[in-house]
Write a structure and sequence with these properties.
Blueprint (H helix, E strand, L loop, with lengths): L13 E3 L6 H5 L12 E4 L3 H13 L4 E4 L15 E4 L6 E4 L4 E5 L4 H9 L3 E2 L10 H7 L6 H4 L6 E7 L5 E4 L5 H7 L8 E8 L1 E2 L4 E9 L3 H14 L4 E7 L4 E9 L2 H5 L2 H5 L6 E5 L3 H6 L10 E9 L4 H9 L11 E6 L3 H4 L14 E9 L5 H15 L3 E3 L9 H8 L2 H14 L16
Parallel strand pairs: 2-4, 3-4
Antiparallel strand pairs: 1-2, 5-6, 6-10, 7-11, 8-9, 8-10, 12-14, 12-15, 13-14, 13-17, 16-18, 16-19, 17-18
This protein binds flavin-adenine dinucleotide (FAD).
Family: Belongs to the oxygen-dependent FAD-linked oxidoreductase family.
InterPro entries: BBE, FAD-bd_PCMH, FAD-bd_PCMH-like_sf, FAD-bd_PCMH_sub1, FAD-bd_PCMH_sub2, FAD-linked_Oxidoreductase, Oxid_FAD_bind_N
Cofactor: FAD
C-alpha cells in the first residue's frame, strides 16, 4: 500500500496488515475483552513514521488509535477498521545522571525508565506496574510510590515533543507553547502523539520498605480508622495503602521509598492498629518494588474496574469499603483498594496543570479479572455495585481510572474551569477531533 503520506518502504518501522506476522500481537492489549481489528498497524520507529501515520489516517479518513503500554481499560489504543499507531518500537530511555534528566520515547514502558534511572540511584514518579506505558500514564497524571515526595509523573515533565493532528512536530515546555504544556499534564492523549518526554529525576537511592498488616474483616474497622488517622501525619516517603481481596481479609500498611531504617520508625505506630492475623515487613529494592504488582496486574485477563477520588475518609466510607456494595458473604466481589495522595501532589498550585483534584486524600479503586466470558455481566455488575457504595463520598475521579464512564466520567475527572480551558486548547490543536480514542475532550464547534 502506498498513500501520498506513507510509503511503507520508507518507514523506519513497519506497516503490518491483517493476517501478517505481528498483527494479532499488536492488536492484543491488556484487557482481554478488547478484540478489535485495525485496518492497518504502523509500528513507528521514528518521529517521521508518526508524522506519516497521522497524515495517512487523515488522508484515508481512518480512525486513529495510539498504543503505548496498551493498559487502557477500554483498549482505546485499538481502532476497529482504523489505523493503529504502535509506538512500542520507540521505547528508548536516555539518562543524563549529572543533569538528572531522562529523555523517554513515547512508546516506552515504565520498567525501562525505572531501570535506566536506577543505574544512578535516580528515579521519577512512575506507576505501580512496570509494564504500564509511560505515554498514557504520564499524560493523564501518573500516580506512584514517589508522588508524595516529588509529585505526579506529569509534574516531573520538563518538556514534551509532540506530533499534531496536521503532522507537525511541536515542543511544549514552560517557555514553548506553555498552553499545550499545561494541557499535556493531565489532559491525556487529546492533543497529539507525544514522541518524547523529558523528565526530571531525583536521587532516591535504590531501597524501599513495604509494611502489611492483615486483619479479618470482622476486626478491621477499628484498625482501619487508626490507619486513616496515622496517614494524616505520615511522612512523604510513606504512601499508605489498604486492600481487600478475594480472601475477605483486609491488608493495611504503607510503602516507603528511601532509607528503610527511617521507615522502621513508623512500625511501632502501625503495631497500634491492633492484633493481626499476619504481619509482613520486607525491604525490596526500588526496582523490585516497581515490579511487585506485575503479576496481579498481568495481561490476558478479562478486566473491569471503577474508581473515585476521596477528599475525606469518614467512618461511613470505611464501612462501605468493607462491604463492597454487598450484604452477602463476599463471594464474587471485586478487589478493592485505597492509595494515599497528598504531600507533593497537593503542593502544586491547582491551576498549574490540567490534572485536577489535587486535594485528594485517597484514591479508591475496585476491579476484577477473569477468563470466562460467561462471567462478564456478573463481574461488571459487582464492580459497579462496589463503586456505587463509595460514590456518596467521592469528590471526582482520576482520568486514567475511567472505564466505560463516557462524557460524564470526563466531567468528573476535571473541574469545570479546567474542562473549559481544555476545550479551548483542543479546539486550537485538534479542531476535527482526530485524536478522539481517549477520554475525549470535544472541540468546540
Ligand atoms: C495493571 C495496571 C496498573 C496501573 N497502575 C497505575 C498506577 O500505578 N498509576 C497510575 O497513575 N495509573 C495506573 N494505571 C492506569 C494507567 O495510567 C492508564 O491505564 C494509562 O492509560 C495506561 O497507559 P498505556 O500507555 O499503558 O496505555 P495505552 O492503552 O497504550 O494508551 C492509553 C491511551 O493513552 C494515550 N497515549 C498513550 N501513549 C501516548 C503517547 N505517547 N502520545 C499520546 N497519547 C498517548 C492514547 O490516548 C491511548 O489511547 C494502571 C493501569 C493498569 C492496567
Amino acid at each position: 500500500m502506498t498513500t501520498t503520506a506513507m510509503n511503507p518502504g520508507r518507514l523506519d518501522g513497519r506497516l503490518v496488515l491483517p493476517g501478517e506476522a505481528g498483527y494479532d500481537e499488536a492488536r492484543t492489549v491488556w484487557n482481554a475483552m478488547v478484540d478489535r481489528r485495525p485496518r492497518m498497524v504502523v509500528r513507528c520507529a521514528s518521529v517521521g513514521d508518526v508524522v506519516a501515520a497521522v497524515r495517512t489516517a487523515r488522508e484515508l479518513d481512518l480512525e486513529l488509535g495510539v498504543r503505548c503500554g496498551g493498559h487502557s481499560a477500554l483498549g482505546l489504543a485499538v481502532p476497529d477498521d482504523g489505523l493503529m499507531v504502535d509506538l512500542r518500537p520507540m521505547g528508548g530511555v536516555r539518562v543524563d545522571p549529572v543533569r538528572r534528566r531522562a529523555w523517554v520515547q513515547g512508546g516506552a514502558l515504565l520498567g525501562a525508565l525505572d531501570r535506566e534511572a536506577q543505574r544512578y540511584g535516580l528515579a521519577t514518579t512512575a506507576g505501580n506496574v512496570s509494564h504500564t506505558g509511560v505515554g498514557g500514564l504520564t499524560l493523564g497524571g501518573g500516580m506512584g510510590w514517589l508522588a508524595r515526595q516529588y509529585g505526579l509523573a506529569c509534574d516531573n515533565v520538563a518538556s514534551f515533543t509532540m506530533v499534531t493532528a496536521d503532522g507537525d512536530v511541536v515542543h511544549a515546555s514552560p517557555t514553548e507553547n506553555p498552553d499545550l504544556f499545561w494541557g499535556l499534564r493531565g489532559g491525556g492523549g487529546n492533543f497529539g502523539i507525544v514522541t518524547e518526554f523529558e523528565f526530571r529525576l531525583h536521587p532516591v537511592g535504590t531501597r524501599a520498605l513495604v509494611a502489611e498488616y492483615t486483619f479479618p474483616l470482622d476486626r478491621a474497622l477499628p484498625a482501619f480508622r487508626h490507619w486513616r488517622d496515622l496517614n494524616a501525619e505520615a511522612p512523604r516517603q510513606a504512601t499508605f495503602t489498604a486492600s481487600l481481596g478475594g480472601d475477605g481479609q483486609v491488608v493495611l500498611g504503607f510503602v516507603w521509598v528511601g532509607d528503610p531504617a527511617e521507615a522502621r520508625k513508623l512500625l511501632p505506630a502501625m503495631r497500634g492498629l491492633g492484633r493481626t492475623v499476619a504481619t509482613r515487613v520486607h525491604e525490596p529494592s526500588y526496582v523490585e518494588l516497581q515490579r511487585q504488582d506485575d503479576t496481579t496486574g498481568r495481561h490476558a485477563l478479562r478486566r473491569y474496574s471503577k474508581g473515585h477520588y476521596l477528599r475525606r475518609l469518614p467512618d461511613e466510607a470505611i464501612e462501605a469499603f468493607l462491604l463492597r456494595g454487598s450484604t452477602g458473604s463476599g463471594e464474587g466481589l471485586p478487589n478493592a483498594g485505597l492509595q494515599a495522595y497528598g504531600g507533593a501532589i497537593s503542593d502544586v498550585p491547582d491551576d498549574e496543570t490540567a490534572f485536577s483534584h489535587r486535594g485528594t486524600v485517597f484514591e479508591f479503586g475496585c476491579g476484577t479479572g477473569w477468563t470466562d466470558p460467561a462471567e462478564d455481566a456478573a463481574r461488571k455488575a459487582s464492580a459497579r455495585r462496589c463503586a456505587a457504595a463509595l460514590a456518596p463520598f467521592a469528590s471526582g475521579v482520576y482520568v486514567n481510572a475511567l472505564s466505560d464512564d463516557g462524557a460524564e466520567g470526563v466531567r468528573r475527572a476535571y473541574s469545570p474551569d479546567k474542562l473549559a480551558r481544555l476545550t479551548t486548547l483542543k479546539t486550537a490543536y485538534d479542531p476535527h477531533n482526530v485524536f478522539h480514542l481517549n477520554h475525549n475532550i470535544r472541540p468546540a464547534r
